[in-house]
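Wed. Picked up where I left off yesterday with GL18788. The coffee machine is broken again, so keeping this brief.
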Amino acid sequence: MEKFLPACLLVVLMLGIQPAIIEGANILGVFNSHSPSHVIVNMAVAKTLADRGHNITVLTQMKPKFQPHENITVIVALPTPERERITKEYMAQMSSQQKSSWSFLAKLFVRSSPILDGQYEWTQHPRVKAIYENPQTKYDLVILGLMLNDFQLGFAAKLRCPVILSWVGIPMPLMDSQVGNIDDPAYVPSLNVALEPGQLTMGFGMRFVNFFKHSFLKIVDVFMRQKMNDYYNGAFGNDSDPEFPSYYEMKRRISLLFYNYHGPSEGPIRPTVPQSIEIGGIQVKEKPDPLPKDLAEFLDNSTEGAILFSLGTNARFTDIRPQIVKVLYNVLSKLPQLVVWKWEDMENTPGNASNIYFSKWLPQDDILAHPKTRLFITHAGKGGIAEAQFHGVPMLAFPIFGDQPGNAELMAKSGFGLHLDILTLTEDVLEETIRELLQNPTYAASVGRFSALYRDRPLTARQSVVYWTEYVLRHQGAYHLQSPRLHMGIVARHNLDVYGTLVLVGLVTLLILRLAFRYVFHNVLGAVRGHCYRTKATNKKPKDKLF
Ligand SMILES: *[C@@H]1O[C@H](CO)[C@@H](O)[C@H](O)[C@H]1NC(C)=O
Ligand SMILES: *[C@@H]1O[C@H](CO)[C@@H](O)[C@H](O)[C@H]1NC(C)=O
Ligand SMILES: *[C@@H]1O[C@H](CO)[C@@H](O)[C@H](O)[C@H]1NC(C)=O
Ligand SMILES: *[C@@H]1O[C@H](CO)[C@@H](O)[C@H](O)[C@H]1NC(C)=O
Ligand SMILES: *[C@@H]1O[C@H](CO)[C@@H](O)[C@H](O)[C@H]1NC(C)=O
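Structure written out below (tokens, as returned):
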């Protein structure tokens, strides 16, 4: 019996150590962004938690394109037609003038932005208001999709529950400040400061520029807080309730910040606090689903590997000039590889080559995961590139519009593939490029290295979302993770009082030393000098005599 006692104890201890299992929490996702790509990422977070058995309610301003889930209730609050028109005009104006995000941010100083006003207006929509003024469900947690809208922390204030922020991109100053990430401009690149792949540090010129961008964003941050404070008070404030937390108080009650980013593979390495959780690639499926039977057979049959060709959902081949389609078909149909080609009009395929499989709908992610897939020909949308990087498939990009040229450039710079202009494509160039991508092993090696690093983590992106969300639920907000920096005023945060004291002590010491020297000079040196003078004076006469 005694022999078993330690073992029993161990079992008891282990049971005790097991974290309590959190079941079926009610979680509210506030995904107010007007950008579909933001909603896709945030919905992936919601779906992860729903798969785990939590009850998710999502508030958005657009109907997200995804399959209905039994544990997700989506509440859509559309913006007013007037607001929609203003936003559209504003976005069109921004993109036609090639305005950068800098001028967007700079404008926030001068006048209010239609985007921000729209986000405020949205919180006043009756369906949205009903959630926080008159909740029918007791919510345990709010997940707020972040996009210059942190006044919406008011949802968590109203519902009296913890809040997790979710940012869909790489860390950037306005998001870092939410949790107090270290943003030393000497080595942490600011917004739009892109290091070359593999570049570790910034040279003088780059650091100089980085310093100014960093400082500019710091100033934007200060203005932004004031603006957000006004929105917060307007939307959620309650003067008759002295207990109601202020905007600044809510900023100190943020439980976590999710970043759709993975430092070790995407780089650069930056210092982050324990409240920053990397969930890079959350929108990428971790385990492929089985392919449709005929497609699986087609791919399994290939001896030379396969190529996936898809220009996404927006660009259709019917929009592309027939000569270009002919160029593409002529080259692809002569390859020894199999080609899976996303093609809308199945009645009118460009040809009947036996090595090409045309289909209107393709499970892109699952095809990229297939071991026979050797090349992805893509329009360089962010989602597709992320999937190919995850699965380690080299790419040939035909960027068409929007952010695609930038994505293609970065992908090629990273050594994951090449890009071509589809409008001026010739058979020779295409054939040459495809041959280079398939025969030169460096592309597959680079993207393979990235893929290996990207997947090598203690918890996958989905596991991180589940673990850390439940951690917050288990520990009533997990505020113990917070950086002390969040709770410091600007003077203490920058140690100004300590430096000031040191300077003061230094000055006082100097003063005392000076007085002491003076005293010594006058009383001691003075006496010595008096003595010298007298001796000099007595020596003077004989000297004079020499002349
Ligand atoms: C929904 O949640 C329940 C538990 O509340 C869980 O058993 C079920 O698997 C979830 N559904 C899906 C599709 O994951
Ligand atoms: C799940 O959330 C919805 C609100 O979106 C609510 O109506 C429903 O009662 C919740 N289910 C459970 C089991 O709490
Ligand atoms: C404001 O606070 C008071 C006191 O707590 C409360 O009775 C009232 O319902 C609140 N008003 C709103 C709009 O939340
Ligand atoms: C795969 O190969 C087998 C035998 O070589 C052949 O019978 C079959 O038709 C092929 N399937 C496809 C989809 O090409
Ligand atoms: C491909 O085959 C189908 C049916 O066999 C035929 O109707 C069509 O004209 C062919 N297309 C081309 C481009 O040869």
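Quick read: The chain has two domains: 21-284+460-491, 293-455.
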